[in-house]
Amino acid sequence: MFTSRACIVLRQRKVFFLLVAFIFVLLFVFGSFSNPEDYEKEYPLQLENEQLVICYESNTDYRKSLYATNLPDITDEPSTTQRNNHQPQALQQPVNGTEPVIYFVTPTYPRREQIAEIIRLGQTLMHVPRLHWIVADDTTSCSDVLNRHIRKFGIPYTQLASPMPEMYRARKNAPRGVANRRAALNWIRRNQKKTGVLYFGDDDNTFDLKLFSEIRYTKKVSMFPVGLIGDYGISSPIVRNGRVEGFFDSWPAKRKWPVDMAGFAVSLEYLALSPNATMPFKAGYEEDEFLKSIGLKLEDIEPKARNCTEILVWHTQTKSSKSPTVRISMDRQKLDKLNLGALLRRLESMGVNHISESE
Ligand code: UDP
Ligand code: MN
Questions:
Q1: Strand, coil or helix: 344
Q2: How many other CB atoms are found less than 10 A from the CB of residue 54?
Q3: CATH node for 53-61+98-314
Q4: Are 226 and 311 in contact (CB under 8 A)?
Q5: Rounded-to-integer distance, Cα 228 and Cα 316, Å
Q6: Calpha distance 281→269 (Å, rounded)
Q7: pLDDT value at position 30?
Q8: What residues are annotated to the active site?
Q9: 25 CA to middle of ligand 2, Å?
Q10: Region entry Disordered: which residue ranges (predicted)?
Q11: Phi, psi of 2 (to 5 degrees)
């Protein structure tokens, strides 16, 4: 009797210990898989099927005398004295060919507004000397239509085809522009670019020309305000005595670096110190995790734009709408005798509309 009861107690203890051990193992396994700091393991720079597709490239600068050297540096502050009393000052630094190159990375994707966005942005960048424009298109194949528009600006450029992996595209909150920026990071690494400055400039943002002379001599990481962000209408570092002390952003979301993609620039010397730096496919946390992956420290940040009192970049967004199908009952030959044949074909090639004879 006594021995059998002792046996049951022992067995219960054994089961209890086994259960506890099992729970520990479970906690350990889940803990190690969901460590939020482990972004390098979770978001490797190179995905298995991620390859670098270079569509077109040009290293020649065809923009002759476009560089502005004598535009006045006028702020938008209300003048307390007379108007037009500003001393003209060089807006862009004079060019002698030794200035650090700005690698301006633009994610873009095919939609009906794409070409219009690229024209507007390209015409801004035409004014910026010593700039290499990396246009990374969210497509599997190289877009010739896009290329024809990029190359006409005469800016040294690289056009990449960098599609978002299908598994992310299916998500409600897809990480937009990440595959593109990762491809650009790969291009920078593969081409051993270790001097100059990296800047992520989306195709729909608005850039003040002064931004470029501000970021060109970035030592490690420079930061500045971005207008039209979130509920406050601005995202900006908080600066005291010329040092960044914190951030003003309406969506902190437990981010260590609550900044917008357009609100910082990184020197390539500094980037090269983190060969595994990457951007995660994690909507909302791209900037934060990228800046963590380069090991950023608060004291590494240089505030720009007059100690973050000026807005030199705006998070403008273009209203997008579906591409319409236009029924034209005239046959193609007749249409080609008018301007309409060529005009409609051009619009169709840009994805602005579709022409149908029956629909
Ligand atoms: N983008 C992309 N693929 C997409 C959606 C967006 O490559 O499916 C690009 C887009 O061209 C832009 C950047 O990613 O340069 C950010 O996207 P968007 O402007 O739509 O985002 P928001 O600025 O509204 O956060
Ligand atoms: Mn945008």
A1: helix
A2: 14
A3: 3.90.550.10
A4: yes
A5: 7
A6: 25
A7: 53
A8: 287
A9: 44
A10: 73-92
A11: -60, -45
Is 137's C-beta closer than 6 angstroms to any atom of ligand 1? no
Tally Cβ neighbours within 10 Å of residue 7.
10
Question: Which DSSP category does 100 fall into?
Answer: P
The alpha carbon torsion through 5, 7, 13, 19 (nearest 10 deg) reads -120
163 with 138: CB under 8 angstroms?
yes
Q: Where are the domains of the chain?
A: 53-61+98-314, 325-356
Token pair 């393991």 in the structure block, residue? 41
Ligand 1 contact, 109 CB (< 6 A): yes
C-alpha of residue 314 to centroid of ligand 2, in Å: 10
Nearest ligand by distance to the CA of 108: 1
Whole-angstrom distance, CA of residue 345 vs CA of residue 32? 55
Per-residue pLDDT tens over the stretch 272-324: 999 999 999 999 999 999 999 999 999 999 999 999 999 999 999 999 889 99
Q: Which residue spans within the chain are E strands per DSSP?
A: 53-58, 102-108, 131-137, 157-161, 197-200, 206-207, 221-223, 226-227, 234-240, 243-248, 264-267, 301-303, 313-314, 325-327, 354-356
Nearest to 47 by CA among 178, 139, 143, 136: 178
Ligand whose nearest atom lies closest to the CA of 164:
1
- Bridge partners of 140, per DSSP, are none
pLDDT of 277 reads 94
The strands making up 234-240's β-sheet, listed across from edge to edge, are 206-207, 313-314, 226-227, 234-240, 243-248
Question: In the numeric block, which tokens belong to residue 23?
Answer: 């729970």
CA nearest ligand 1 atom 6, residue: 176
Residue 17 has pLDDT above 60, yes or no: yes
103, with CB counted inside 10 A (0-12, 13-18, 19+), is buried
Binding residues for Mn(2+): 204
